[in-house]
């Protein structure tokens, strides 16, 4: 694989997106449902049983996820890093977090079906128009790259024409996130879903911190020649033998608690000094890092500064990855002269 498009494990790609871009992940999973060939019911049942055994986990600790507080004389904003999808039964709530959930006036998340976004863009129409007007990816690759591209998509089991007409970053992500085995995590058990249910039951409002459609479109519209050249280089360097090795030359399956290491660390309150999506320093990596991390964290810091001007108690729950690394939301706040204190 080309040096700039850094190798990444299949499950790490899906799960890193889950930590930073829940709405985009949901869009991709919806595409999978439409494109993946259906399995016979019996095979589906066998697959579910096998997955349940492979992805069992244990928690011999009391959960204590990291929480920060940003406040002034009449406003308190609690910042909670989340995992958008979790396996059923995974414990993540502490006594302190329960107290915060009970006392918050409003829940703010990245995206929610329960919150209206004023002036939201029509992502579906924009994406349909872009697909209709773009030259297929295969026509923009070298002969060798075109051959490997067809092999890569073919190994994924997805419909080639659908992937080939997508904006290249969306097509590449869809192929990447379809590889390997799907674990037992679900947004049904994800932090935001659980919090939304509680706030809905108690009649408290739910708001969003951004227009998730605009975020997705800012990424998907990047379909330029520099990105295509990088993809072409990676494809021609790939030996075509293994779908997983295109994204990770040293891929090895992990199961049980080893698979859920990131989730365990998060539930224990471990916050890493560094965070990256893992797609390298080339055009593709820069596009993802800027649009999913840097730009959003900077915008959220502005939102938080402005929200301090309104009294009340807010619970902001966004992907855990946004609190890690040099471009973290915490550092963006500090750049604006604001400091969030960790309280758990």
Automatic annotation (TrEMBL):
It comes from the Bacteria. This is Polysaccharide biosynthesis protein GumN.
């Amino acid at each position: 694989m080309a040096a700039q498009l850094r190798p990444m494990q299949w499950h790490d790609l899906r799960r890193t997106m889950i930590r930073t871009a829940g709405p985009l992940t949901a869009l991709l999973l919806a595409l999978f449902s439409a494109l993946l060939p259906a399995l016979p019911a019996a095979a589906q049942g066998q697959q579910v049983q096998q997955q349940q055994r492979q992805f069992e986990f244990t928690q011999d600790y009391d959960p204590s996820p990291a929480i920060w507080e940003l406040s002034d004389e009449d406003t308190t904003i609690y910042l909670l890093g989340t995992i958008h999808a979790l396996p059923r039964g995974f414990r993540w709530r502490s006594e302190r977090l329960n107290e915060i959930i009970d006392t918050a006036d409003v829940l703010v998340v990245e995206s929610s079906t329960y919150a209206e976004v004023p002036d939201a863009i029509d992502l579906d129409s924009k994406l349909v128009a872009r697909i209709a007007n773009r030259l297929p990816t295969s026509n923009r690759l070298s002969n060798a790259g075109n051959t490997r591209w067809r092999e890569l998509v073919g190994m994924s089991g997805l419909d080639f024409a659908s992937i080939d007409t997508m904006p290249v970053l969306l097509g590449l992500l869809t192929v990447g996130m379809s590889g390997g085995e799907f674990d037992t995590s679900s947004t049904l058990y994800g932090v935001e879903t659980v919090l939304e249910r509680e706030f809905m039951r108690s009649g408290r409002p739910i708001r969003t911190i951004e227009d998730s459609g605009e975020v997705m479109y800012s990424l998907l519209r990047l379909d330029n020649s520099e990105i295509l050249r990088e993809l072409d280089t990676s494809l021609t360097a790939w030996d075509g033998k293994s779908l997983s090795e295109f994204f990770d030359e040293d891929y090895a399956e992990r199961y049980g608690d080893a698979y859920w290491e990131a989730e365990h660390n998060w539930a224990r309150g471990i916050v890493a000094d560094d965070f990256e999506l893992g797609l390298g320093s080339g055009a593709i990596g820069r596009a993802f890092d800027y649009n999913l991390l840097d730009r959003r964290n900077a915008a959220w810091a502005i939102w938080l500064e402005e929200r301090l001007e309104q009294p009340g108690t807010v619970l902001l729950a966004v992907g855990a990855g946004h609190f890690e690394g040099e471009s973290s939301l915490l550092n963006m706040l500090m750049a604006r002269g604001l400091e969030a204190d960790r309280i758990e």
